[in-house]
Design goal:
six-stranded parallel beta sheet; Sec-Metab_Biosynth_Hydrolase; Rossmann fold; transferase; acyltransferase; single chain; 43% helix
Length: 252
């Protein structure tokens, strides 16, 4: 075969490979899945930082009626993105992104004070394996949903936030169905995708040692932040920095 043709072909292949790699590194879609007993409004400060830095941020407002419903809600948002996305999950949101992250258009997973389940594990099973101090969680009258008493929400969930902000989170919390907390996940996306984890060292909703153990098992890159479970709201700059690094590294 003509050596000149081979050289031209090699150059063309190298150029296309470089172009693909450069394109793959440009992950600009950030899809955030909030946790249970909260809604997406608490992510405003982190989202504003990411927006300012050129990212396209979308917050999934999942119903927390069942794990399947919440994965479906996340998939609907992912369907709207143009190009690869980085999935970010807080608390129960980690259960959701572990399932939804199996999509080929998800480039990586960021767990923020979140559950990182393995196959067959549930939130309630993980949470009870390393319990934290008693949280004032109550049942609704129908016995189907759980919530935190608004009077103790700040101490249990967001002790490092100003009182007015913590009180608003308590007032806007999304009640979580027992079905969502007992659902078992399938094949975890973190076994095939890069992952990052933020451990909130003052967390009173998830035992910080459990967060560390799950992140180690998943091989996640770990960042520890001295913060409550509401680390996304109390330390938005640090959480945004982790997300931005993940977005940059996920495409490599």
């Amino acid at each position: 075969m003509n050596t000149r043709f081979l050289s031209i072909a090699a150059l063309g292949l190298a150029a296309s490979t470089f172009a693909f790699a450069a394109q793959a590194a440009e992950i600009k879609n950030i899809v955030i899945v909030h946790g249970a007993l909260a809604d997406g409004s608490g992510w405003r400060k982190t989202a504003d930082i990411l927006d300012k830095d050129g990212f396209k941020v979308t917050v999934v407002q999942e119903p927390i009626t069942s794990l399947a419903d919440d994965v479906a809600a996340t998939n609907r948002v992912l369907d709207l993105q143009n190009g690869p996305s980085l999935l970010v999950g807080h608390s129960y949101g980690g259960m959701v992104i572990t399932e939804a992250g199996n999509r080929p258009d998800v480039a990586g997973l960021v767990y923020v004070a979140a559950f990182q389940p393995d196959k067959g594990e549930s939130l309630i099973g993980l949470a009870s394996s390393k319990p934290v101090g008693s949280m004032n969680i109550r049942e609704t009258k129908d016995g189907q949903y759980l919530y935190i008493d608004p009077a103790t929400f700040a101490a249990d969930f967001a002790a490092d936030l100003p009182k007015d902000e913590a009180d608003f989170l308590g007032k806007s919390q999304v009640f979580a169905s027992k079905a969502a907390f007992t659902a078992k996940v399938g094949d975890p996306a973190w076994k095939a995708k890069k992952s990052w984890a933020v451990v909130a060292s003052d967390d009173r909703a998830i035992n910080p040692d459990l967060e560390r153990d799950m992140a180690k098992r998943a091989g996640s890159e770990v960042t520890e932040i001295k913060a409550s479970h509401a680390v996304f709201a109390s330390q938005p700059e640090k959480v945004a920095a982790v997300i931005e690094k993940a977005a940059k590294d996920a495409g490599k």
